[in-house]
Design brief:
10 helices; mainly alpha; single chain
Length: 235
């Protein structure tokens, strides 16, 4: 089979344009989020280099995980954001699963927070000697929440609900692959847990058609990890 035959009319006739756009935008967004934070400085917060660098990272991520997908949904797909998980209706349908996940994660975070690999990665905003939690740590938490919101929207909203009409429940498995990959470089237990969490949160979003409790549980675990790491460093 030559190149022309591969892309003949018969081969491309059944191509779903939405699937193509979502897959290409996923690859592009992950690439930009990986490389752009090392190239640009967008904010200066209280002359705090660490906090400014983290804020830059979140703003770039928010652009490619939320702003651009929203623009695609509104102006390319011409659909409502509520179709991609941004709605309260039905959000609490599977609330017990979120509670169960939190109950499971609390002791796991407590255990792994004692390891060197965990403490070398967390907290994202590391307090300097003598620095108090207020204000910079809590300023960072505001950005951190924004990061989790954008991440959940992109993976459990844009990808799952965008691919769902064509791929059905398999959209959850497709989403889990890049979601796992963005955890490369983090501690191995966290990366392996991302596979499970990606599938569970994806299935719940698929069933409830809402990402909002997923945002809540994801940020809650992230905050818990930061606080646990800080506690072990100052004890």
């Amino acid at each position: 089979m030559n190149f022309k035959e591969l892309f003949s009319a018969g081969d491309v006739k059944g191509i779903d344009k939405k699937v193509v756009v979502i897959c290409l935008l996923t690859a592009f967004s992950l690439t930009m989020n990986k490389y752009l934070p090392n190239l640009f400085s967008l904010l200066t917060i209280n002359d705090n280099v660490q906090l400014s660098r983290l804020a830059d990272w979140v703003l770039i991520l928010f652009t490619f995980y939320f702003i651009i997908p929203v623009a695609v949904i509104k102006f390319v797909f011409r659909e409502n954001l509520s179709e991609y998980g941004l709605k309260w209706n039905g959000a609490f349908k599977e609330y017990w699963i979120y509670v169960l996940m939190l109950v499971i994660m609390v002791p796991l975070v407590g255990f792994f927070s004692t390891t060197d690999s965990f403490q070398s990665k967390y907290p994202f905003y590391d307090l300097s000697a003598g620095e108090k939690l207020f204000p910079n740590f809590w300023v960072w938490q505001g950005f951190y929440f924004l990061q989790f919101f954008a991440l959940e929207f992109f993976f459990r909203g844009f990808m799952v609900h965008g691919l769902k009409p064509k791929l059905g429940i398999y959209s959850v498995l497709i989403m889990t692959i890049p979601y796992c990959m963005i955890h490369f470089g983090k501690p191995l237990p966290e990366t392996l847990a991302a596979i499970v969490a990606g599938i569970v949160l994806g299935v719940i979003s698929y069933r409830t058609r809402s990402i909002l409790l997923g945002v809540a549980i994801h940020y809650s675990v992230g905050l818990l990890m930061d606080l646990a790491a800080l506690w072990h460093k100052i004890e």
